[in-house]
Amino acid sequence: MSYLQRVTSRRPTVAGRVALLVRAGLIAGLVIAGLSYPFTALAGMGVKAGTDALANMPEQLTEVPAAQTTYVYAKDGKTLLTMFYEEYRRQVPLEDMSPYITQAIVASEDTRFYEHHGVDAKGVARAFVANQQAGGVSQGASTLTMQYVRMALRDSAKTPKEALEATEQTAARKLREMRLAIEVEQRLSKQEILQRYLNAAYFGHRAYGIYAASEVFFSKPAKYLTLNEAALLAGLVKAPSAYDPATKDQGAARQRRDYVIDQMQKIGSITAAQAATAKKSKIKLKLSAPPNDCVSVPDKYNDWGFFCDYFKSWWREQPAFGETVLDREENLRRGGYRVITSIDPKVQAAAMKHVLNKEKRDSPFAHGEVVVQPGTGRIVSMAVNRKYSLHQAANGKHSDHAQDSDVRGNYPNTVNPLLGGGDMAGYQAGSTFKIFTMLAALDAGLPLSTSFYAPERFVSKYITAPGPATCGTHWCPKNSNKSMTGTQTMWSGFGKSVNTYFVQLEQRVGAEKAVAMAEKLGLKWRTEVDRKLATPEHASGWGAFTLGVSDATPIEIANAFATIAAEGRYCEPLPVMAIRKTDGTDAMYRGRMIAAPRCHRVFSENVARAATDAARCVTGYGADRGSCGGWGTSPMVFATLGRPVAGKSGTTDNNKTAWFSGFTPQLAASAFVADPDNPEHYVGTSRSTISKYTVAETLRDALKGQPKLDFTPPSDKLVW
């Protein structure tokens, strides 16, 4: 037994063991073996000085969990949407690795791994002699444990300076590695060190750890690596670029693989026959590029890219994942979460089918739909007639002819958040906004039977409210047709979408109350004009608000109607079912699960039931407590769906946009058609009903096999 083995086998303290190594003259040898420093550079320090220098170094390795890949799944927990990572990595236990890879890595990197205690005396001597003969660094003396220490220091670095210090070729780095390697060997078993090493090593192609390397190069779990495959991967650790087998010339990769195989035979891991057979085999790769971010959603589920983009936008807003947006994005790419999203493959497929049946991808008009679950706010579908892609060179011409002829439109390919969640303002929602006025009126105690005579044109009290219909200094809206003239109630006024009725209702309750109700239901003001008019000093004069001159996103509108379906409980739009950390536990924030619904009451159950009763008039289902006045704007919805349904249609002046939002007790949906590139490109009357059919058909398919639940009628308090 060598002096080093004798002194290190006694397992003194780390500092004590280092001191013994210094006295044995082996630290100087180690530094010289790994570096081209002259012997006297360190030896001149003397035993005491060398021991004192080492005594001031850290006693224990600070191990920060390495960055891991976040996996994002559909609601079923099985269908992978995409992954987020900076370094493709996933921790796996040693038992989930092929025994060939553990044998190969020991054979190629540290044949005496099971004999030393972190520092290999024979390796130091061998490297020292080789380097002296070469006149420089031709051979290193780093053990697997020392290499692991270097990886751990690299992964735990918080600044560029710390990262440099972890990898730079200096005597100080070698000394620190040596000391910490001894500490690690006292604390961890050989198997634990080997497992951590294999989960941290870099194999090239952004693959960190054996799980990622096996997937990238062979598209298989590490458990099933063959002898050939394991030897090839083990050979990459030394120099991933130099021995990259994915290049055209595999000569260097083959030589390195064969070297590893020879080493495996030399240490007795495999037989001579196994080695000979393995070296005759060709390198056979099955390369894969693991998806990363929303642009990598598989083609089969490309339409889910818009939902993925919304999820990413939502994540950036959550303080649970970091203090800043950058912190949260880094957490998403490094945290190793398992995210089960709320997107339902069945509902999404139905929505896409019906969206594309109405408007093809190569149309400049965007036709999209969002489906939300009442009572949770969970988004189960986001469908739009676009392909989620950055490749837009072959897109159609821009619909705004004032644009340069070289400017392409955002169809069929785009990554714009057309359904919500980004910085787009949305689209004017037209008469959909009457729901906010009606809810404000009901919340103020006005009953459904509240009546006004609705003339064809009405001279409002509003003077400064913007809108296309004006007479003199006042805003004078008009109805879409003369048949609406007459006395209307909330039932008939909402069912027929009578403008002059709702302007009077808005005057009665106060435009500022309607604006406040929209804000309570989650609407944000994203244009300078909307933000100004929604302020307290201007909202009371915003008469045109009830006719939907403000912009809104499909997610906001769908969730507003979901709040009515949930009988007055508003839930924030939520794209997740569960978020689990690497240990399998739910991610928490301030004592609650991050993925849990976030709901609160914004108006009473009776207000919601009253609004629903009026909204039934729109769809042809009919009110329970009053008269709809003989007709509604969207009778095809109930006729198509065949179950209790309420909702509201919405068109803007000259049919610039066309919306429909509908809900059952189980689901709420909102669909629109508009030109996102050019708001002045009118959809026309031919597209005025497609959103109605899309919502009805999607809800029909999504609810197939589920019970036909009815709405609860309102009490007399808000009826008469």
Task: Give a short overview.
The chain is built from 28 helices and 21 strands. By secondary structure, it is of the alpha+beta class.
Overview of this structure, please?
There is one protein chain. This protein is α+β, with helices and mostly antiparallel strands. The protein has a five-stranded antiparallel β-sheet, sandwiched between helices. β20 (658-663) and β21 form a beta hairpin. α18 (345-358) packs antiparallel against α28 (690-702) and α19 (434-443) packs antiparallel against α26. The longest helix is centred in the N-terminal third of the chain and has 17 residues, at 171-187. The chain is elongated and about 105 Å long. The chain starts with a helix and ends in an 18-residue tail after the last helix. Mean pLDDT is 90; it is low at 1-12 and 22-51.
Distance between the termini: 100 Å
User: Main sheet?
Assistant: 5 strands, antiparallel
With helices defined by DSSP (H or I, 4 residues minimum), what is the helix count? 28
Unreliable sequence segments: 1-12, 22-51
Oligomer: single chain
Which bin fits the share of residues in helices?
25-40%
Mean pLDDT: 90
Would you report the number of β strands?
21
- The value of Rg in angstroms is 34 Å
Structural class: alpha+beta
Strand order of the largest sheet: 5-4-21-20-19
Shape: elongated
The percent range for strand residues is: 5-15%
InterPro entries: Beta-lactam/transpept-like (IPR012338), Glyco_trans_51 (IPR001264), Glycosyltr_51/Transpeptidase (IPR050396), Lysozyme-like_dom_sf (IPR023346), PBP_transglycosylase (IPR036950), PCN-bd_Tpept (IPR001460)
Protein name: Penicillin-binding protein
Keywords: Carboxypeptidase, Glycosyltransferase, Hydrolase, Membrane, Multifunctional enzyme, Protease, Transferase, Transmembrane, Transmembrane helix
Pfam family, one: Transpeptidase
